[in-house]
Amino acid sequence: MDGGARLSVRQMCLLALVFETTAVQLSARYSRKQAVLYFTTTAVVCIEALKILLSLAVLAYTEGGLTAAISAFMRDARARPELALKMLVPACLYTIQNNILLMGAGYLDAGLFTLLRQLKIPITAILWVIVMRTSLSRAKWGALSLLVAGVALAQSGDYLLLLLGGGPQLPALNSSASLGAFYVILSCVTSGIAAVYFEKVIKSAEYKPSLWILNVFLAAESVVLGLLGCYFDQGAAISEHGFFHGYTPLVLAVIVIHASDGLVVALAVKYSDNIAKAFATAVAVVLTCAIAAYWGDFHVTSSFLAGAVMVATAAYWYSTA
What predicted TM-score, i.e. pTM, was given to this entire model? Predict the structure, then answer.
């Protein structure tokens, strides 16, 4: 009975992750089309600050009140001070990832950028196998390979076909593009390490702290790192225009969706693993493109349809392997 209940929770977490990730991608996409753009660095700080409040709210519910939740957090902070250090690792890695990813995007065209981003899936899978000391069958590796190919084809099929065909319109990979490719690949590595490390902490600690206490630590440290990013990256502009410059109801929605998505991701990792999370994210990518196409903001091509079929097939193959 417990196994069935656990499977049900796992399925609900992954399903929630699909819809949350889709909402994140769509809201972020359309919020950057505003006439007056907001500062992404301040938005990141607001997202992490809201994660703290949401995590404390859930902790208060599970502990029986806000006072009890704060007491539980302080108890763990005093008894296990290394938790703060452990969470500093993924907080720093995610901060590095976000910054170098933006740097890489500035050097690459959209097709190559999207294509290279798919390396995050196999890199995370390899790190997961090594760090968690587990193994995947050949069938599951095959499903993962099909997943990577499907997402790449769905998102950047025209570029991929051009790349494989070596057509005359293929842009040359100059020194700037090579640097951009390095940044994107490095962001995939840092993201994979952070994700697998967080899963390791959740599932392998001798003393298993509350997931919500870990999230408070992670979000609090991310707020500090985010404020440093505000100062060094956009400090002058923020001083001139204000911290909340360009904020609209849509931007506030983006912040709420992103914050709740972070908590759903944590639940998905706790009750499932990073491999299943990768499949849920890939399904969300296809769903995002489909919704954007319905809204007239994405052109459906044969490569997208083929990629969508490959993603669905890979998900079914992996689940039955």
Answer: 0.77
